[in-house]
C-alpha cells in the first residue's frame, strides 16, 4: 500500500506531527491500480449492502474508503486536507454515501477539482421536513455535483427537483450482493418461511399483511424474528442476515409504498432461499422472471401461492426456482459485476461531459 509520509509533504497539517492511524476500511492505493479511476470513498461501517458496494468500488479503483470512525477533527473536517495527505494528486472522483453522523460536517469541496457523485438512498430524505432530512438536503445543495447515483430511478426527478438541480445526471446503481457474504451454507432449513424487516404502518402495508397472516396460520413454520442482530448488536448486518435466511426455505419481501426494489430482492435468492415478492418495474428490467427466479405474489394471492409452493408435494418446483434464482443473482447481480458496469457508465458520462465542454470552450 502507498502511504505518503506526513513529514515529507510540502505543506504538512499543523499542529499534528504524524498521520493519525484512524480506520481506513478499504485501501487500494497500489502501483497495479494506478491506471484505474482514482477515488475518495466516503462510506460507513454498517455492514449492509452500502458497505459491500463501497468495498467492490474500492477494489476496482485507486482509492481509499473512510467512515464515521475516521479522525476528521485532525483535518478540520476538510476533504481537501484529507486528499492532500492520502493522495499524491487529487483523485478524479469523490463518492459520497451520506452518513448523518459525519457527512454534513464536511467542507473543502470547493477547494478541489475532484468530481463529486452522491448516492441518493431513500428519496424521501430529499423531500421531508425533518431536521435530519433538511440537513441532508442542505449538504447536497451546496455541492457542485457531477452526478447522483440512485438505486430507484423512478424517483430521480423528485430528487433533482428537490435539490433545485433539474438537469443533474443520474446513474442507476441497483442493489446487488457480495457472493462471499450471501450464499447457501448447505445447512438444514428448519423454517418454512421468513418475513423480516420494518413493519412501519403506512410504509409497508403488504409486508404487514403477510406477517399478520403468517403469525396466525398453522400450516407453515414461521421464522419468528423480524430483525436479526450482527456483531456488536448491529442492525443490517450482512453475515447475520445470510445466516438467518439459511434457516428458511423461503422468504417474502415487498417493495413498500415507494415501489423500491429493495436489498432483500437480491439477498434472499442469493442466500439460496426461495423468494416470494411483489413485482416492481425495475425487477423486470433487471431480468427477474416470475416462476423462474422468484414467485410473484400480490395481496390477493400470496396465501395461496405460499401454501402451494411450500407444500412438500411441490418441493421439486420450489427447489427448481430456488436454485435458478440463486444462480441468477450470484452470477448477474454481484457487486463486482455491478460496479464494473457502473464505472463504465460513469466513464461514458464523463467523456460526454468533456466533449460538451470542449465544444463550448
Structure description:
- The chain has 2 domains: 6-176 and 336-360, Rossmann fold, CATH 3.40.50.2000; 191-333, Glycogen Phosphorylase B (Rossmann fold, 3-Layer(aba) Sandwich), CATH 3.40.50.2000.
- The strands form 2 sheets. The protein has a 7-stranded mixed sheet, covered by helices on one side.
- With 361 residues, the protein is α/β, with parallel strands linked by helices.
- The chain contains 11 helices and 12 strands.
- Helix 1 crosses helix 11 and helix 7 (264-270) crosses helix 10 (315-332).
- It starts with 23 loop residues before the first strand and ends with a helix.
- Mean pLDDT across the residues is 91
Which term fits the overall shape? elongated
Q: Uncertain runs with pLDDT below 50, 5 residues or more?
A: 1-21, 355-361
Count the E strands: 12
**Which percent range describes the beta-strand content?**
5-15%
Distance between the termini: 39 Å
Oligomer kind: single chain
Biggest beta-sheet profile: 7 strands, mixed
The CATH superfamily of the largest domain turns out to be Glycogen Phosphorylase B
Strand order of the largest sheet: 1-3-2-4-5-6-7
Q: How would you spell out the order of helices and strands? A: EEHEHEEHEHEEHEHEHEHEHHH
Which class of the largest domain in CATH terms? Alpha Beta
CATH architecture of the largest domain: 3-Layer(aba) Sandwich
Amino acid at each position: 500500500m502507498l502511504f505518503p509520509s506526513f513529514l515529507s509533504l510540502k505543506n504538512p497539517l499543523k499542529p499534528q506531527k504524524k498521520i493519525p492511524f484512524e480506520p481506513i476500511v478499504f485501501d487500494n492505493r497500489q502501483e497495479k491500480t494506478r491506471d484505474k479511476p482514482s477515488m475518495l470513498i466516503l462510506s460507513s461501517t454498517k455492514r449492509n449492502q452500502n458497505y459491500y458496494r463501497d468495498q467492490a468500488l474500492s477494489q476496482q479503483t485507486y482509492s481509499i474508503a473512510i467512515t464515521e470512525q475516521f479522525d476528521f477533527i485532525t483535518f478540520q473536517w476538510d476533504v481537501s486536507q484529507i486528499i492532500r495527505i492520502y493522495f499524491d494528486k487529487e483523485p478524479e472522483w469523490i463518492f459520497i454515501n451520506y452518513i448523518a453522523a459525519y457527512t454534513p460536517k464536511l467542507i473543502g469541496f470547493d477547494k478541489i477539482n475532484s468530481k463529486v457523485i452522491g448516492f441518493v438512498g431513500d428519496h424521501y430524505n430529499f423531500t421531508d421536513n425533518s431536521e435530519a432530512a433538511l440537513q441532508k438536503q442542505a449538504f447536497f445543495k451546496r455541492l457542485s455535483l457531477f452526478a447522483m447515483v440512485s438505486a430507484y430511478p423512478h424517483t430521480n426527478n423528485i430528487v433533482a427537483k428537490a435539490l433545485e438541480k433539474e438537469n443533474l445526471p443520474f446513474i442507476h446503481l441497483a442493489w446487488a450482493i457480495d457472493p462471499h457474504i450471501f450464499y447457501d451454507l448447505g445447512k438444514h432449513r428448519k423454517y418454512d418461511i421468513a418475513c423480516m424487516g420494518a413493519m412501519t404502518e403506512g410504509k409497508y402495508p403488504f409486508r404487514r399483511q403477510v406477517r399478520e397472516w403468517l403469525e396466525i396460520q398453522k400450516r407453515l413454520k414461521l421464522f419468528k424474528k423480524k430483525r436479526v442482530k450482527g456483531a456488536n448488536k448491529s442492525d443490517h448486518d450482512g453475515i447475520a442476515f445470510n445466516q438467518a435466511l439459511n434457516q428458511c426455505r423461503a422468504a417474502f419481501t415487498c417493495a413498500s409504498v415507494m415501489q423500491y426494489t429493495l436489498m432483500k430482492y437480491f439477498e434472499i435468492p442469493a442466500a439460496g432461499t426461495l423468494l416470494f415478492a411483489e413485482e416492481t418495474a425495475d425487477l423486470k428490467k433487471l431480468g427477474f422472471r416470475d416462476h423462474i427466479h422468484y414467485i410473484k405474489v400480490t395481496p390477493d394471492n400470496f396465501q395461496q401461492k405460499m401454501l402451494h409452493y411450500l407444500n412438500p408435494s411441490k418441493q421439486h418446483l420450489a427447489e427448481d426456482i430456488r436454485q435458478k434464482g440463486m444462480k441468477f443473482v450470484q452470477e448477474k447481480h454481484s457487486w463486482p459485476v455491478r460496479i464494473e458496469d457502473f464505472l463504465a457508465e460513469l466513464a461514458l458520462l464523463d467523456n460526454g461531459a468533456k466533449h460538451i465542454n470542449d465544444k463550448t470552450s
